[in-house]
Amino acid sequence: MSFRRLFLWASTNRWLRVRATRARFVRRSVVRFMPGERMEDALAAAARLKPLGVSTMLTCLGESLARIQEAEEVCHHYLRLIDLIQQSGLDAQVSVKPTQLGFDQDVEVCHRHLVLLLERASASGHVLWLDMESSPYVDGTLALFRRLRERRPGVGVALQAYLYRTERDLDSLLPLGAAIRLVKGAYLEPASVAFPKKADVDANYLRLASRLLQAEGLPAGSLVHLATHDIPLQDRLRQLIAERRIGPDRYEFAMLYGIRSARQIELAQAGVPTRCLISYGEHWFPWYMRRLAERPANVWFVVKNALGG
Ligand code: FDA
């Protein structure tokens, strides 16, 4: 089993989750990727990034609820977050996972919660983002996205370059003038649905981003989040943006808190629209395993903490 697959397998293992979240050395290493478990920690981190020119996006970690009642608590949590963002004057958006709002238990309940969040976010002029989860959720998430978009245009969705289907999904989403976050993809997927080779994922990312960054012919309101830490890819995309004279209102580079932080500030200071996704919350285990899966060197950081370094 490859390193990536091992950690992606671990991300879904309950036995490991229970033990790892109690281990002090694991908790110590998580702080590199998240400013804290509380909403206030995330807002404080966003306030620190603001003077550096980096906008933010906030998400409370959690996925696949055990009971539908929990979805209501999550929805209230996010409504409060949107209110606090509004009061603080931060340029911060909110990003949510459908399974965190009850998708598995009752899609209609999930939709009702999303409508509440979209209405509240739109009232303060902020986009509400839907994360994309593993491949069995893609159809359902896109269906929710389309329904929400019929109500308000201020909703965006993530698309994953590792999926073969994404090219077709883009065909149907591009004419809408939608807000799209393009990512490489973070879940364990079979070769029947996703490119197994990283080089193919990278090439597909560039192909899809190039379509998203068309200079003309896209309806007003189109927005693309180029969500990657891949610097050569970012540089290629910046070149494309300059060649095609794409305005700064049409795109943003998006990166995760704690990853390539200096690059985030460098881009922002160079006048490139840059947004940092800040995650917080108690349910960080699957998300943290996905971050370890992305880069073998991250595991040494955990080991160093285990050894007390
Ligand atoms: P790649 O994996 O090629 O990494 C490029 C370089 O970036 C690495 O060489 C390393 O230097 C650095 N890097 C990348 N990951 C790192 C890590 N964990 N620790 C340290 N360094 C790292 N996925 C998904 O399936 N659904 C979603 O909704 C989202 N949402 C999302 C939002 C935003 C703003 C970002 C940036 C990412 C996501 N993702 C996601 C995750 C995404 O799919 C992908 O797993 C990661 O971004 C890693 O891929 P890169 O594009 O960075 O490239």
Bound molecules: dihydroflavine-adenine dinucleotide
Write down the Rg.
Answer: 19 Å
CATH architecture: Alpha-Beta Barrel
CATH topology: TIM Barrel
Q: Main sheet?
A: 8 strands, parallel, barrel
Q: Which word captures the global form?
A: globular
For the record, give the distance between the C-alpha atoms at the N and C termini, rounded to a whole number: 29 Å
Order of helices and strands: HHHHEHEHEHEHEHEHEHEHH
Q: Give the count of helical stretches.
A: 13
Describe this structure in words.
This protein is α/β, with parallel strands linked by helices and 309 residues long. The model has no long low-confidence stretch (mean pLDDT 91). The chain is globular and about 55 Å long. It is 49% helix and 14% strand. The chain has one domain: TIM Barrel (Alpha-Beta Barrel). Helix 10 links the parallel strand 6 (223-227) and strand 7 (251-256). Helix 5 (69-88) packs parallel to helix 6 and helix 6 packs across helix 7. The protein has helices at residues 3-10, 14-22, 24-30, 39-49, 69-88, 107-123, 138-151, 166-173, 198-212, 231-243, 261-269, 285-294, 297-306, and strands at residues 55-60, 92-96, 128-130, 155-160, 179-183, 223-227, 251-256, 274-280. An 8-stranded parallel beta barrel has the order 1-2-3-4-5-6-7-8, surrounded by 7 helices. The protein binds dihydroflavine-adenine dinucleotide (FDA). Residues 131-132, 158, 160, 181, 183-187, 227-230, 254-256, 259, 277, 291, 294-295, 298 line the site of dihydroflavine-adenine dinucleotide (FDA).
